[in-house]
Give the backbone structure.
Amino acid sequence: VADASTLPMTSHSGQSRVRQKVFMSESGEDGGRAGRREADPAETARANRQWWDVEANDYYNEHGAFLGDDDFVWGPEGLREADAGLLGEVEGKQLLEIGAGAAQCSRFAARHGARVVATDLSGGMLRQGLDLNARFRVEAGLTVPLVQCDGGNLPFSDSSFDVVFTSYGVVPFVADSGAVMAEAARVLRPGGRFVFSTTHPIRWALPDDPGYPGLTVGSSYFDRTPYVEDKSGAASYVEHHRTMGDRVRELTAAGLRLVDLVEPEWPEQNQQVWGGWSPLRGALIPGTAIFVCEKA
């Protein structure tokens, strides 16, 4: 569990950490192509897992300072769990993070008294998490167990957690996000809470551009065809889209009740540009949606 070299390999799922798209046109210099086409669960999982395995270190080097090693950030707007309190009181509770990346959010929860397990599909991200765990153990006397697994097929018993959460993990990076909702509901205890952030669905209709071109509708909001980056004849990255209504239906089908939907506003003090997220766009349209759900 705590040693990435012994973590089991899995066959499908995915995780997201606010992907900064690199293919802004149909064809790239290296022969890569990006656009909308179908991608099944196996292709989606293979592409996204490999992408994050390769990009884990660079991702941390680029965004680690903003995310913090033991902080909890819900998205590029900079909304922090310390201010939002969307998980509720976590002290003494059993928490599960899916699509945890390097488990920064889980360390935040551990600092606040939670018993937390962090999971991710990518061994590369979990190896980064092991490095951060070593520092966390020295600084705080705490650690976070890491498990490599599929977010749509969790290796945990029914009703074993009080809270399941993810910050930009799993949900848009699997072909069957309804299965993720169902698994979260399965492992939650009655009355438990599932909270996840993801790209706001309205962004799907707009170019992934932080400037003025990113304010002009260019695609149908209702087009669920995945966005796929292909390289050397194979998918290297895949995102799936669902409308707001789709998300609500997935949650209710899983036996969850939506109790809040948070659309963080872009704060004036945040002047960073992160992929398609920017102060310009953030002042006009939402970039992140946070779904707060409870199990009956």
User: Anything to note?
Assistant: Helices lie at 41-67, 81-84, 104-111, 123-140, 177-187, 244-253, 279-282. The chain is about 30% helix and 20% strand.
